[in-house]
Amino acid sequence: MLTRDGFNLVVACFLMSLVTTTVIVYPPLTLSLFAVTVFTLSYALMTARHLKTLKPTDFAFSRKVEPSQPRPGEPFEVYVSVTNKASKPLNVTVVDGLGGLQLVQGMTSVVKLLKPGDVAELRYYVRPPARGVYSLGPLAIKVADDYGVCCRYITLEKEAKVLVRPALSEKPKLLEGVKWVQALSVSGTGSSVKYGADDVFREITEHQEGQPLKSIDWRRTARDDGEIYVRKYDKLNRLKVLFLIDCTVSNTVGKPSMLDTIISAVASVSRAMLEKGDVVTVRALGALEPDSYTAAGARSFEGLTRFLTWLKPGYSFDFLKEIDKAKGFDAVFLLGRLSFVDGGQLKNAGEQVRRHGGVFFTVIPVLEPDDGIGRLLLQLEMSRIENLKRQAGFISVVKQHELPQYLSHLHRMLKAAAS
């Protein structure tokens, strides 16, 4: 295709030829301009045909992101290299795209004459504003001739996804202000009459007299010298925990948003729960793509964070239908502003969960305003929460930045009640 300069050149040749043949009739000038026009068109056609022979395989490219798992609000480095594998020099312009990322330092394009085997490099820094899924690319190359008349665009990579996972709190400390929460009565898997608490393997030791034969590890027992080994187990009382996250647009207020704060807090406390052997289920209420994810064991934490990263705010949900799915859990956490839930629904939800042997927590985080308008909005929010309390009973109101510590505190109380 023609570049802007090439298009202007062709148009100028046509206009000058038209003028010399209709207005200024001078045969030598007309002939020379006609020759220039024919030469320009011939050059453009031949160059375009030559550039058409180039393929994406004539270039080798790589993209590296450091660190490989970016954190919200923290810049990360992107390095892109493109190598000319063709047998001739090429004038290239390498352009990389940013999908939702903020450019902090460097350039996302470079112009260079690449000889065979030469490399064009891009190095820049970008920052993700919040948790979510972003994209790098498409990585495109513009190849032009020596005079800038024709060019061809080649896309080497359509798009590369960058997952910015929720920020995790490293070992959150207990809050001094958390002195009392509702009374807990949790049993976990230990309440099973048939199975009891789960047996978790701990170690293999030498057999001692009086130990049961059913614990003998036959694969580790040496029959030649008579040594016998047994397996030792710990009794683990697992808890089945459900997090109900209000993902409606009403939780997008604040910076960082309330939804991002809730997701970060859930990810942090879920990691501690999974390390303790508990089973965690997260269900998104009102998200654009409502779904749930169940994690059991520390190895499944990666999948849980990936699920939380993809959550996007939606509009509304059927709260009663979601509570019907909350049966069989030892603890249910309802987190968010709950703008689409009334006090009567909250009261019925708590009674239904407790009727099936679970503990129901309703936690509403609030912003910490620093101006007059924000404080006025906080008063309105607290008035709405007080109306919910009068109908639903116990509701925890927690400052936004204290939510991870508060959930960690509740988790420790759950484990203490179940032991």
Automatic annotation (TrEMBL):
Keyword set includes Membrane: yes
Regions that span the bilayer: 7-25
Domain (DUF58): residue spans on this chain: 206-286
This protein's UniProt keywords: Membrane, Transmembrane, Transmembrane helix
The organism's place on the tree of life at top rank: Archaea
InterPro entries membership: DUF58
Keyword Zinc: no
Entry protein name: DUF58 domain-containing protein
Native species: Caldiarchaeum subterraneum
